[in-house]
Write a structure and sequence with these properties.
Blueprint: H1 14-38, H2 43-50, H3 52-65, H4 70-85, H5 92-115, H6 122-130, H7 134-145, H8 151-182, H9 185-224
Keywords: Membrane, Transmembrane, Transmembrane helix
Transmembrane segments: 68-88, 100-117, 160-183, 189-212
Protein name: Intracellular septation protein A
Length: 237
């Protein structure tokens, strides 16, 4: 005889873990390049059309749950800022600096989300900690809910992860704005990419050592201690 546990015991798939990133980030970004490059629309039109999904997700969250979808809301705000900045033209230094307007919006959004108790970068980090494993998913939920002994430390590391990325991205924006008005334009064209890549490397190293690594060890310890049971798929009669 087989015991059916239904969806409760279903192991989260890779798609389940990455769904927030796919819908709220990858889909709007992908649609922007699709409209702009494949369909040949203007930058303004591509930004407008790629804002549809995050706008629907944000409004839907407010209507159904009385709360905002953090990632979708951030992408929507970034698109609105990009729409406003897309009209900027003329001064080459201003053109170089305007990209920092989008980056700083992302950075400030991340820092505000921490202040509101909903660290935005968690959605991007969680799939790599949980690894699609049901027991690790259950351990994660216990840690974030306060039901585990290490919950307080876990939530502190979760906030730290977003704070690191918010500060790194904000610093990157400041450096690029300063460079746009102090470094020769031809140099800043390629130096801006170097600054971005450097900031990303610093973000990964610092956030990994300060937050993601310790959180992964806490999740593993919660599972190893036997406080999280692996779901049984079937029980033989």
């Amino acid at each position: 005889m087989t015991k059916n546990t239904g969806n409760q015991g279903r192991k989260p798939s890779v798609l389940d873990n990455f769904k927030p990133l796919l819908i709220d980030v990858a889909l709007p970004l992908g649609s922007y390049y699709l409209f702009k490059d494949a369909f040949g629309t203007s930058t303004f039109a591509a930004l407008a059309w790629s804002s549809v999904v995050p706008a629907v997700r944000t409004v839907g969250g407010l209507v159904r749950e009385r709360r905002t979808n953090a990632l979708a809301g951030l992408i929507l705000v970034v698109n609105v800022v990009s729409l406003l900045l897309s009209s900027v033209s003329g001064d080459p230094r201003l053109m170089l600096a305007k990209d920092s307007g989008v980056g700083s919006t992302v950075a400030i959004g991340i820092l505000v989300s921490v202040r509101l108790g909903r660290p935005m970068m968690t959605a991007g980090m969680k799939p790599f900690v949980v690894k699609g494993d049901a027991a690790r998913e259950a351990a994660w939920q216990r840690l974030v809910s306060g039901a585990a002994a290490e919950s307080m430390a876990f939530r502190s590391r979760e906030r730290a992860f977003s704070v690191v990325w918010g500060l790194v991205l904000l610093a990157e924006c400041v450096v690029r704005v300063v460079g746009a008005y102090t470094v020769p334009v031809d140099t800043m064209v390629w130096l801006g990419s170097v600054v971005l890549v450097t900031a990303m490397v610093i973000g990964f190293v610092v956030s990994g050592g300060l937050a993601a690594g310790p959180m992964e060890r806490m999740v593993a310890a919660e599972v190893a201690a036997g406080r999280v049971e692996r779901p049984e798929v079937a029980v033989a009669a």
